[in-house]
Amino acid sequence: MNQLAKDYWEQFWGEEEHPALVSAWMFGEAVDELAQAVIDGRKTATCSALKLYELENEPVPVIDEYSIILNSLEEPVAIIKTVDVSVIPMNEVTEEFALAEGDGSYRNWKEIHERYFKRELGKVGLEFTEDVLLVCERFELVDVKLQV
Predict the structure, then answer these.
(1) How far is CA 27 from the centre of its chain?
(2) Are the CB atoms for 135 and 85 separated by under 8 Å?
(3) Res. 8 pLDDT band, cuts 50 70 90
(4) Which domain CATH number covers 37?
(5) Which residues, listed in sequence order, are joined to residue 89 by a DSSP beta bridge?
(6) CA angle 71, 74, 77 (to 5 degrees)
(7) pLDDT in tens, 90-101
(8) Which domain holds residue 117?
(9) What is the pTM of this model?
(10) Which positions ≥6 away from 83 have C-beta within 8 Å?
(11) Alpha helices for 21-105 (secondary structure H)
(12) Rounded to whole angstroms, how far apart are CA atoms 86 and 138?
């Protein structure tokens, strides 16, 4: 986590006792657009391939975990809190979840995510399949620092 994100986290909580568990990250594509969608309330969910978490030795999100969303300049723009996490095959993701990702329609969500996972899994020598396991995370917006 960069210093700007650390400072934002500390300023947000002030003198209050606060959770130690926090991460800072940016969305994989359309970084600023998706960060703004979170701020606007159009995006309340996100997902990634379980295999990518495993290969990057990254922990899977957990309920009540906080994240600082970064823009493309790696500046903190918002804080979110994870409220639900499930691991689901991509071909079983519900339309309701897909719409919560803010991509407009289930069809758009599917096209965007197929393209993204084909590319990202291909980079590590893995083949995309329709039943690739996704870590599906729902979150709530806690604070907004800046508009993107």
Answers:
(1) 6
(2) yes
(3) very high
(4) 3.10.400.10
(5) 133
(6) 45
(7) 999 999 999 999
(8) 3-144
(9) 0.92
(10) 63, 64, 138, 139, 140
(11) 31-40, 50-55, 95-100
(12) 9
Number of domains in the chain: 1
Residues in the chain: 148
pLDDT in tens, 23-67: 999 998 889 999 999 999 999 999 999 999 999 999 999 999 999
**Encoded tokens for 10:** 């500390």
Q: Is 50 helix (H, G, I), strand (E, B) or coil?
A: helix
Give CA angle at 144 (84, 40), nearest 5°. Answer: 70
Beta bridge mates, 40: none
> Position 51: which residue type?
K
Residue 54, token pair as written in the block: 């495993």
CA quadruple 32, 99, 46, 122: dihedral sign:
negative
